[in-house]
Design goal:
The structure holds 2 protein chains of 2 kinds. Chain A is mainly α. Chain A folds into 5 domains: 146 residues, no CATH class; 147 residues, no CATH class; 192 residues, no CATH class; 80 residues; 231 residues, no CATH class. In chain A, a hairpin with a 4-residue loop joins strand 10 and strand 11. In chain B, helix 2 runs antiparallel to helix 3, helix 8 packs antiparallel against helix 9 and helix 11 runs parallel beside helix 12. Chain B is globular. Chain B starts with 5 loop residues before the first helix and ends in a 15-residue tail after the last strand. Chain B is built from 13 helices and 22 strands. Helices cover 34% and strands 17% of the residues of chain B. Chain B is an alpha/beta fold. Chain B has 2 domains: 105 residues, no CATH class; 302 residues, Alkaline Phosphatase, subunit A, CATH 3.40.720.10. Classes of the chains: A mainly alpha, B alpha/beta. Chains A and B meet through helix 16, strand 8, helix 30, helix 33 and strand 10 of A and helix 3, helix 6, helix 8, helix 9 and helix 12 of B.
């Protein structure tokens, strides 16, 4: 009946001509097919766009409208307006609401969920055709190929989801990595150094966009040094490179940089962004993770050793299972515990556990597979072929994963350094806190004894039955109660800090639940490891309270290529306590896995070009970016796995390409890059990037000569804005100990990577330059320009101290003002001054010198105590106490203005300007 | 210093401005492009404050009375049962024991429990007859300004996760705060002040600055803590030995080096944005201290807020500052006041807390009314959750306090567009769970945005593969709270 009206549409809507013949041609029964296909297409739209509120959950149906049946649609909802009038789309609310013509009733309510013109047309055509309803279970085979492809999975919560169609371009990353041929470029204007250049030249040549000229040597050296080391080149390195006229001069530079111990640090910075490294656990107490630094150093070591990436994956997911006797493997699996985590007396243990399982499931997906999985916790993934079942199957791979701080003697490569002074300090604080607590306990007991002596045994118990007193508070003043709380917390903090020097690893083991629900860390692996591994069930709506079907461990079923595990259950992982993670890691680290190598080469590409070939490195799914150069991505992924998953080889390949060595200015040609490719997707010139926060801080220390290149070891405490350092931070029931920087400049002026990373206390200078928090995985650093950056770089203590140190260092290294300015340019910008730059700087120096000769800065002392204030929860009243800043009592300050002469201070003004200059802050 | 003339850049880069708007427009309809990557590029290519400043005032989605918001956040979880939600039944049950063993109860709320009555007397106030405990002496006088809401429920009974949820919609960190969303949606009137200002207590709250984070929104929308002591904005002032003249000279040399650099590297918009930022910073340095200086306020106003009186001085200063900031065009001001976590001895603990905030809050409402600002300012008073009608036994004693409660709480709204003089929703007989007009927190968030003229379904940002919003997955307006 419905399709009889169909020819009418063809008259009115010429577009239908295109669609209809194809439908007819593909259908076995030309007469019946359109109705059935229309119905299925419409049903796909309705189930995706409407059923969340109008049918999927019988208890949560909105407006009384149930669209799961034709009868429901015809009956309409509470509004009593006609929802579906077959043949009359313009009188059917189902259609008119979807067109959003009426601002009062747009459906779906969210603008971002609005139907596309194509979807609207499907609905319209379907209603015009009489709104035929699909059968109970739409037969997958009846779809037309033009509707997209089906991706076979372990099955969604509904057959509609299991049989849904994907546009091929949305599931590209689930297809096997291709082996594209390297394009041959005949246009001699393009420089082709290696296959990368052929892949980037092809689309440029096609569009007539010229390739940029090669960058000059100083620019190229600065770019490569920052990219691979996160540091600026020294003037000596600059001179050597400029002098070296051999054709492989730059290749030699790349090799030198890859061999530098700082290469691993820079590479680790990128990796730790993705894995969310921090030295504390976050939330209420933000307790220290005293052994986290060993994971950070493990990552650095791995990159420096050029550990094959497939091995690196295995170690971080399952090192403890693969080589239980290898202590480094216990450190590697610290990866699994990088997320924020806390259990307190207020938390429900089952919730804390589930939070961990959700966290690790999602982040394994994001980190290695470029596939966020969190969406599938509550429902089958809306855009990607990830059913909820897969989410919980993958989660089950971690059901036997238990937290433990495992004994793990320090390895030969681990730098723990001389910890005598630091240990002594912690012990002192601990014994101070204990003494205070013991004194209060004694006072309490004495008061009870005295009272009972006078009023008889048991008299205190009677007293404290009232609403306002506790036995253990008896005889203590309000302030003493507060002092007790503060010192209990200090004891807690310093006990953790003491662990920093003990040889444990932040680690896991595989086994049944240990029912360890204490808020304190578990040291060692329990010997009694019997019991049943936690059973993971699909949680309906993601809620722990409503468990559904139990699942066995498994992998992402949409990826058939890498699933050669078992012919009968191709997506299954073993369900023994031990070995689940090993099998999962092997599946991820397989060359057949269609995501893993693509994700990694894309991350590396982003490091060098500011943006990945896919702009969203943590999301290669339907909602992620589409590859700008899909063949190049696949070619690189294939090359990478064939070359032993070697990152160093991959970096060398990229840096030795002509694409990398271009200038950052677009070449003028018949077609300008700015108009033809405004976002420079095609890489017709090198993209400029701002230094990352850590690079900026490290570069400032490097050009002043203050950087301490020492690698590894427990976190250090750089100077940060003093007000932030002393800002009291509320932790559960108390205030966290003040932030005190390390006592000597050498300790403070380490690379930023080694700064102790506190989740709830960011170094404000790094934060304003877009250093992300370490709660969720960061796939890409933002580079926003905001005014607080100016305050930080122009007014901040760190920047001003660096400027003064820079000036003092220039004075030592060069004899005249002119030579000092020249050296400053070479250090800061990696080039000698040009034009009238020296003159401008000299003039500025002289002006400043006149000022500084007349104005001597006054000395100021660092405080030795910080006044804390908190509202006492037991009384609701203010409580104040002083915290001694013990480190600041034995503190070596940087060179301060009042210790420097007027000339140095004047030169420091010039230096401050250089450190603020665009040329210093950007890499080109 | 021609290079520093903003008008010049305004004309030169006009074309880029429209392209950026185009990208924003696309964001609403195209589903499969990686918008964050696009925006990332476009925002960093911001050319100057006039053409590309994401904080320029924007049209709201919908007509609304409230143009600004002051959020009085009571960290720790004030007890609804001892403030705005009297439960006579608890007097009957007082000290009656029971046992709770529930897989989904925390260690602290399991085991032997007993009921606790409120130590306070309750009275009705104003024409509306709003119930309040007798410790609110001053707030009682402006009772008719309040719309008390007792139907809200949240998901977490732990402080930091509950704070994050109240402030960002998400139990875990990483999402933008309500103030960040608001300034993202509305921009701000005064470009020399931050759009979203935070006035923390002496100590930062549990969970720290993530409570006023910009989350995945661009950094412009992050809450800026204004500090009561020292430099109000971090490093707002140069070191003491720097004068305005020497700094000006430094900026001039910097502008010269940057201008030369920009000539060598044309078409790199971010360089110009950076140059403009230095000039804006220089202006802010001069203007901010004046705005936040309370010395110019008359003695009567200071007295009204309780400034100079020991109990109320700290919070009173922040309330007065909040009023001044809103007056100066700041879009969203959030005050943090901790110490409400009264597990033990609710009588003493809540009496002390109420004494500190009662007078300043009443003054804020009175003052905003007097200045004609209350109708255009939304004021919110809330903690992260409510408290339990029962308590556990700690230290072997009954300590007459209350534990956390995610399913029953009280908050109030006042000012622009709010149905003042009403109490909406109710908890059950003992105040354990919301029972009438029950809404998840997400609906409150949608309502707050609605009162500010924003549609939660339109106020979205593409991140991690989907369009994110304050309510997380959408919610509904609580119409009962709106006049």
């Amino acid at each position: 009946m419905g399709w009889i009206t169909f020819p009418c549409i063809r008259m009115k809507r010429p577009f239908a001509f295109v669609v209809v013949p194809a439908l007819l041609a593909a259908s076995p029964s030309p007469a019946a097919a359109p109705a059935q296909e229309l119905a299925q297409r419409a049903w796909a739209v309705i189930s995706q766009k409407c059923l969340a509120c109008h049918g999927n959950d019988a208890e949560k149906i909105k407006g009384g409208l149930n669209l799961t049946t034709r009868a429901g649609a015809l009956a309409g909802g509470e509004s009593e307006r006609t929802v579906l009038k077959p043949g009359k789309p313009d009188e059917s609310l189902l259609y008119t609401a979807a067109t959003r013509a009426d601002p009062q009733l747009p459906m779906p309510p969210k603008d971002n969920d609005a139907l596309s013109p194509a979807q609207l047309k499907i609905l319209r055509d379907w209603i015009l055709a009489g709104a035929p309803w699909p059968g109970e279970k739409p037969a997958a085979g009846s779809w037309n190929a033009a509707d997209g492809i089906v991706v076979k999975t372990s099955g969604g919560l509904s057959p509609d989801w299991s049989n849904r169609r994907y546009k091929p371009e949305d599931v590209w990353a689930w297809q096997p990595v291709g082996t594209p041929a390297v394009p041959s470029i005949r246009d001699s204007k393009f420089t082709i150094r290696n296959p990368i250049d052929a892949f980037t030249a092809a689309p440029l040549a096609l569009r007539g966009i010229p390739q940029a000229k090669p960058a000059d040597k100083p620019t190229l050296l600065r770019r490569a040094t920052f990219d691979l080391l996160g540091l600026p080149p020294t003037p000596a390195e600059l001179d050597a490179f400029v002098r070296d006229k051999s054709p492989d001069a730059f290749a030699k530079v790349v090799k030198r940089l890859l061999d530098s111990p700082h290469y691993g640090e820079q590479q680790a910075r990128h990796w730790l962004d993705v894995t969310r490294y921090a030295d504390t656990a976050g939330f209420s107490n933000d307790y220290e993770r005293p052994h986290a630094w060993r994971y950070r150093d493990y990552v650095i070591r791995s990159f420096n050793a050029d550990k094959p990436y497939d091995r690196f994956i295995l170690e971080q997911i399952a090192g403890d299972e693969i080589e239980p006797a290898n202590l480094e493997m216990l450190i590697a699996v610290g990866f699994l515990r990088m997320g924020p985590w806390e259990h307190t007396s207020m938390t429900v243990a089952a919730v804390t556990r589930q939070d961990f399982l959700d966290d690790v499931t999602h982040h394994v997906g994001v980190t290695f597979l470029g596939q966020g999985l969190r969406c599938a916790r509550c429902h089958d993934h809306k855009f990607d072929p990830v059913p909820t079942r897969d989410y919980y199957r993958l989660q089950a791979a971690f059901a036997s994963t238990q937290f433990a701080e495992r004994p793990s003697p320090f390895l030969p490569g681990e730098h723990i350094g001389d910890t005598t002074a630091a240990r002594a300090r912690v012990e002192q604080h601990l014994s101070d806190a204990r003494a205070v607590l013991a004194g209060l306990r004694q006072k309490n007991q004495d008061a009870i004894a005295a009272h009972e002596k006078q009023h008889g045994a048991g008299s205190v118990a009677d007293l404290t039955k009232s609403d306002t007193a506790r036995r253990d508070n008896f005889g203590l003043t309000k302030d003493e109660l507060s002092v007790r709380k503060v010192h209990q917390k200090r004891q807690d903090f310093f006990e953790r800090e003491r662990q920093r020097f003990e040889a444990y690893a932040l680690s896991v083991y595989s086994g049944p639940p240990n029912n360890y629900t204490s808020v304190r860390p578990l040291f060692g692996v329990p010997t009694n490891r019997v019991g049943v591994v936690q059973v993971v069930s699909i949680l309906n709506g993601g809620a722990l309270e409503t468990p559904g079907e139990a699942v066995k461990p498994g992998v992402l079923s949409a990826m058939s290529a890498a699933n050669d595990l078992d012919a009968n259950s191709p997506w299954a992982l073993p369900d023994s306590a031990n070995g689940r993670r090993t099998a999962l890691a092997k599946w991820i680290a397989s060359p057949q896995n269609t995501l893993t190598a693509r994700v990694l080469v894309n991350r590396v590409w982003q490091q060098h070009f500011g943006r990945g070939l896919v702009a969203t490195p943590n999301n290669l799914g339907a909602m992620g970016g589409k590859p700008t150069h899909p063949e190049l991505l696949d070619w690189l992924a294939g090359w990478f796995t064939e070359n032993g998953w070697s990152l160093k080889k991959l970096h060398a390949l990229i840096l030795n390409s002509a694409t990398y060595q271009q200038t950052s200015s677009a070449e003028r040609g018949t077609r300008n890059a700015e108009s033809a490719d405004p976002r420079n997707d095609l890489l017709s010139h090198f993209p400029t990037r701002r230094l990352a926060a850590e690079e900026l801080r490290d570069a400032m220390l490097a050009v002043t000569g203050e950087l301490n290149p020492q690698t590894g070891g427990p976190g250090v405490f750089p100077e940060i804005n003093w007000e932030v350092a002393f800002q009291p931070r509320h932790i559960m029931g108390s205030v966290a100990p003040a932030y005190q920087p390390s006592p000597t400049p050498a300790e403070r002026n380490r690379r930023t990577l080694y700064a102790f990373r506190i989740r709830t206390l960011a170094d404000p200078m790094l934060e304003v330059f877009n250093r992300p928090g370490s709660e969720t995985s960061c796939e890409h650093r933002d580079a926003t320009t905001v005014t607080p950056q100016v305050f930080s770089l122009m007014n901040g203590g760190f920047a001003n101290n660096r400027a003064l140190a820079f000036a003092a260092s220039l004075e030592k290294s060069a004899p005249t003002l002119k030579s000092r300015i020249e050296l400053a340019f070479r250090r800061a910008f990696g080039r000698p001054p040009a034009g009238n730059e020296v003159k401008s700087c000299e003039a500025h120096f002289n002006k400043m010198l006149a000022h500084h000769r007349l104005n001597a800065p006054k000395a100021n002392d660092l405080p030795t105590k910080v006044k804390h204030h908190m509202v006492e929860e037991m009384t609701g009243e203010d409580f104040f106490w002083d915290e001694e800043l013990d480190v600041l009592r034995r503190y070596t300050r940087d060179l301060m203005p009042w210790q420097a002469g007027a000339e140095t201070r004047a030169l420091a003004e010039v230096c401050l300007v250089l450190l603020n200059a665009n040329e210093f802050v950007y890499v080109r | 210093m021609n290079a520093m003339n903003p008008h010049r850049f305004g004309c030169q880069h006009f074309a880029k401005h429209s392209r950026r708007d185009f990208v924003y427009g696309l964001g609403a309809t195209l589903g499969t492009v990686a918008f964050n990557a696009l925006l990332r590029q476009e925002l960093s290519a911001a050319d100057n404050p006039q053409s590309a400043n994401p904080l320029m005032p924007k049209q709201p989605h919908l007509a609304a009375k409230a143009k600004a918001c002051i959020f009085l956040f009571m960290e720790g979880g004030p007890s609804h049962l001892d403030t705005f939600d009297p439960k006579p039944k608890l007097a009957e049950l007082h000290m009656k024991e029971f046992t709770r063993n529930d897989r989904f109860a925390s260690a602290m709320t399991s085991g032997k429990r007993y009921f606790v009555r409120s130590p306070f007397q309750f009275k009705q106030h104003g024409r509306s007859g709003l119930w309040m405990c007798d410790k609110f002496e001053h707030l009682a006088r402006v009772a008719d300004e309040l719309c008390v809401y007792r139907g809200c429920q949240v998901d977490s009974i732990d402080h930091p996760t509950a704070c994050y949820q109240m402030n960002t919609g998400n139990r875990f960190t990483g999402d933008p705060a309500v103030g960040a969303w608001t300034s993202f949606g509305l921009g701000t009137r005064n470009q020399n002040l931050p759009a979203f200002v935070v006035l923390p207590d002496g100590a930062f709250p549990q969970g720290g600055a993530a409570n006023w984070s910009n989350g995945f929104l661009p950094a412009h929308f992050q809450g800026t803590p204004l500090r009561s002591q020292g430099s109000p904005i971090l490093d707002l002032n140069p070191p003491p030995h720097v004068t305005r003249d020497t700094q000006r000279a430094n900026l001039d040399l910097l502008a010269k080096l940057n201008a030369d650099d920009a000539r060598r590297h044309p078409n790199q918009g971010e360089l110009a944005a950076r140059m403009a930022a230095y000039e804006l910073a220089f202006r802010m340095q001069a203007e901010v201290p004046g705005v936040i200086n309370l010395d110019n306020e008359d003695a009567k106003t200071k007295e009204l807020y309780g400034i100079g009186q020991p109990a109320t001085d700290r919070f009173g200063r922040r309330c007065l500052l909040a009023r001044k900031l809103v007056q100066s065009g700041v879009r969203f001001v959030q005050l943090f006041e901790g110490g409400w976590d009264s597990h033990d001895y609710i009588d003493r603990a809540h009496t002390g807390r109420i004494r500190c905030v009662d007078k300043p809050i009443a003054a804020l409402l009175t003052d905003l009314r007097r200045l004609g600002l209350l109708d255009s300012t939304l004021v919110i008073w809330s903690g992260e959750f409510g408290r339990s009608p029962d308590n556990g036994v700690r230290g072997g004693e009954n300590v007459a306090g209350r534990d956390h409660n995610a399913k029953g709480m009280a908050m109030w709204l006042a000012g622009g567009g709010v149905k003042s003089g009403h109490a909406i929703g109710a908890t059950d007989e003992i105040g354990e769970k919301a029972a009438e007009c029950v809404h998840h927190l997400r609906d409150l968030h949608v309502t707050v945005l609605r009162l500010l003229g924003l549609d939660d379904n339109k106020l979205t940002y593409f991140h991690e593969g989907r369009f994110k919003q304050l309510s997380q997955t959408g919610g509904q307006v609580i119409n009962e709270l709106i006049a």
